[in-house]
Amino acid sequence: MTCLLSAEEVTVRYGSLAALDGVDLCVHDGQRHALIGPNGAGKTTLLNVIAGATKPQRGTVRFAGRNVSRLGPAARARRGINRIHQRPAVFPTLTATENVVVAALPRVTADPGWWPGRRRRAARHRAGALLEQLGLADLATVPAGHLAHGQRRQLEIAMALAGRPRLLLLDEPAAGLSAVEVGRLVEVLQALPRAVAVLLVEHRLDLVYALSDAVSVLRDGQTLAAGTPDEIRTSPLVRQAYADGVA
Ligand SMILES: Nc1ncnc2c1ncn2[C@@H]1O[C@H](COP(=O)(O)OP(=O)(O)OP(=O)(O)O)[C@@H](O)[C@H]1O
């Protein structure tokens, strides 16, 4: 099977430190792929390279059959790579619905006031459907700044889906959430349409095993192992890596 996303031989150096040292990664269409590893392994750096936020010294990123290595984050987002940040990035004074509508807009017409009425209505309708999907329908008219942390995270996922991504990059989505919010997040991620592939960086291995169908393990900027959740769970190499420098 060909890769929807492939990172090939990616190297990122900070001075004498190799944050990534010739890393390969392949994410298939619709796959739930988790990236795990001890602290400082290079997981966030690899997400940054894939999103276009960090330029590697060496290596190639291909997406949907094209070399996107030279494109910045906005151009990659337009091609379908969308990222959810560790700290939810929403517009606090806009309502939940307005946030999703704005996220669906092409950059040049970022003010919905410029849209023809039919298009604006369609965008609001879709925003309503996405908020429903994410369990936020009752909060549609609430300013995003008034939402709880977990609700803002769900709103950011709705915003990402509004751009019709083919790949969602999630960097520690459970960080800072309560147990109830984590449970809700797991449901939301499990219910995502298979048209969207997910690359998930997460320290909580229970979530990784609940959500993913492929796992890659980084250690010291290199790929230590890759396989199914069962293969990774029982790998002595991975157990040792976590025992040496637990996340
Ligand atoms: N901008 C930077 N300047 C210097 N060093 C950096 C920079 N960004 C990352 N590093 C270093 O690169 C290495 C990999 O960092 P990275 O954040 O990618 O690891 P990680 O696996 O995401 O870790 P964690 O699980 O702790 O978030 C670390 O040693 C980190 O200190």
Automatic annotation (TrEMBL):
It comes from the Bacteria. InterPro entries: AAA+_ATPase, ABC_AA/LPS_Transport, ABC_transporter-like_ATP-bd, P-loop_NTPase. Keywords: ATP-binding, Nucleotide-binding, Transport. Signal peptide: none annotated. This is ABC transporter ATP-binding protein. Pfam families: ABC_tran (PF00005). One of its GO terms (molecular function) is ATP binding. It comes from Micromonospora tarensis. PANTHER family: CONSERVED COMPONENT OF ABC TRANSPORTER FOR NATURAL AMINO ACIDS (PTHR45772:SF9), CONSERVED COMPONENT OF ABC TRANSPORTER FOR NATURAL AMINO ACIDS-RELATED (PTHR45772). Residues 5-245 form the ABC transporter domain. Transmembrane segments: none annotated.
